[in-house]
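Problem 3 from the worked examples.
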Amino acid sequence: MISILAAFLIVLAVRTFAFAVYKVPENSLLKNGDRVIVNRLARTDFKKNDLIVFGDSVKLIGRIEALPGDTITVGKDKFVIPTVCCRKCRCKYCHEYLINIGRGKLLVPYHCINGKAYRLYNLPF
């Protein structure tokens, strides 16, 4: 009984702090019903085209399109992605990323990112 309880606590700790499995919501970048595993420990060194999960109460899945310091063009105007997202965070990794969520693009600060996502599988229903 003690070994079953210990195994349950270990699995609970890993699911809470290291990895989580999410279902892709409707109108997202991936197909509805896809499952992704999120590595919550991989929160640095993001590259373009990485899948990430972000958000506080509602978790969204998106693909990184521009990194901090990159220049993007909207119409005839050019913008630079900020290299510092806010003054109150004071984190050395506090940057903003341009994220494609399928139905639009958002600027997401580093502290809202839950982790890097990896596509697991698609359910046919």
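Problem 4, a separate protein:
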Amino acid sequence: MRYQISGKQIDIGEALQTHVKSELGEVVEKYAQRPTEAVIVFSRVAHEYVCETVIHLSTGLTAQAKGHATEIYAAFESCREKMDKQLRRYKRRIRNHHSARTTPVEFGGASSYILAPTEDAEDVEPDSLQPIVIAEMETKIPSITVGEAVMQLEIGGQRMVVFRNEGHGGVNVVYRRDDGNIGWIDPRNSK
């Protein structure tokens, strides 16, 4: 597994990096057979240290956890415990999808845009009806099943997952509804 351990405006020593690799490696190996990458970022907010961890699995899932504490090691331990709990909770589902999938998930490229907000003035007519793009970046869209997308939504703590449906190759969306349920948008089924 490849580790990327960094700090935002704080120095991360070798001892902490070694500790993170051994402890996180132990947790991930217990629940996921083929992790590919772990990104760990330490930062400081006021008097607290914050540890954010994102683990990418070969099954296409991404698990995320965040921990806070007044000491940097305690922040990591809090994050590690949350990651352990999250992976333990979905262990059976991860293993079921893992055994059915023989090859790693394929990712396709796509563009992602961030649009500037519009002003709320009622009588002001905009100069152009085109939105102003303030950021444009590349993003990856996984080719997974609907079940894997729902699991990604739950494990990653995201509000929405855009994916290419392995069943028919079309782009689909699963999202968390306001009532707590999960919605699925499949444009192919609307005909």
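Solution to problem 4. The chain has a mean pLDDT of 79. The longest helix spans residues 14-31.
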